[in-house]
Amino acid sequence: MKKGIIIVILVLSICTGCFNFNRLKKVQSSTNVNENKDLVFEKDFGSYSVSNTWEENIEHSTDKKFFYKKKGDNSNPPNNISVEMGTNRYSENDHMTFRSAILRQLVMQTHSSIDQIKANGSNTNNNYVLYTFIIEGEKSTIKQYYIVGDYKYILVYATIFDKTNEEEVDNISSQIVNSFTWK
């Protein structure tokens, strides 16, 4: 009798989890078009726009990390931009400590010196604190844009493999960063 009750509870939990996951994924995939004909993505954490010359790469996106690439770009790998929200232990007012933690982590992960990582701080068009980190590699350039929130952040992560299109990737990254609004 106990086994039967446990199995029923387990099945109900799994079914409820599937229902909630599907509902969550559906909410995270909302897309509209603004007056400039740019795509506006509504996610659980906020919204941002992307030029209609780019598209969400559904194949590589998950329910937490969303990838974008230029429409029709079939290069392998293509220049791409991802957007995701993360949490941290830093308040919005303690953004300088958060910045230092990111920089330390990048130095450890890339085996670079602080001098090899370009870093700067500014604000987005919506007046959120923004930190940008650029790491130049032999085969690619990585640009990380951290939009600071209260114990959370948005990471806009651009990976540039084809440097002839770097300016376009920079423009799309800036569009995402400057149009972003927290929910």
What's the CATH C level? Alpha Beta
The radius of gyration is 19 Å
The helix-strand sequence is HEEEEEEHEEEEHE
| CATH fold group | Protein Transport Mog1p, Chain A
| Domain count | 1
Just name the CATH architecture: 3-Layer(aba) Sandwich
- Poorly predicted regions are 1-28
Helix content estimate:
25-40%
Name the CATH superfamily assignment: Mog1/PsbP, alpha/beta/alpha sandwich
Strand order of the largest sheet: 4-5-6-10-9-8-7
Mean pLDDT: 86
User: How many strand elements?
Assistant: 11
Number of helices: 3
> What fraction strand?
25-35%
Mass-distribution shape: globular
The structural class is alpha+beta
Largest sheet: 7 strands, antiparallel
* Straight-line N-to-C gap: 47 Å
Describe the structure.
- This protein has 3 helices and 11 strands; from the N terminus they run H-E-E-E-E-E-E-H-E-E-E-E-H-E.
- By secondary structure, it is of the alpha+beta class.
- A 7-stranded antiparallel beta sheet has the order 4-5-6-10-9-8-7, with helices on both faces.
- A hairpin with a 3-residue loop joins strand 9 and strand 10.
- The radius of gyration is 19 Å and the shape is globular.
- The N and C termini lie far apart (47 Å).
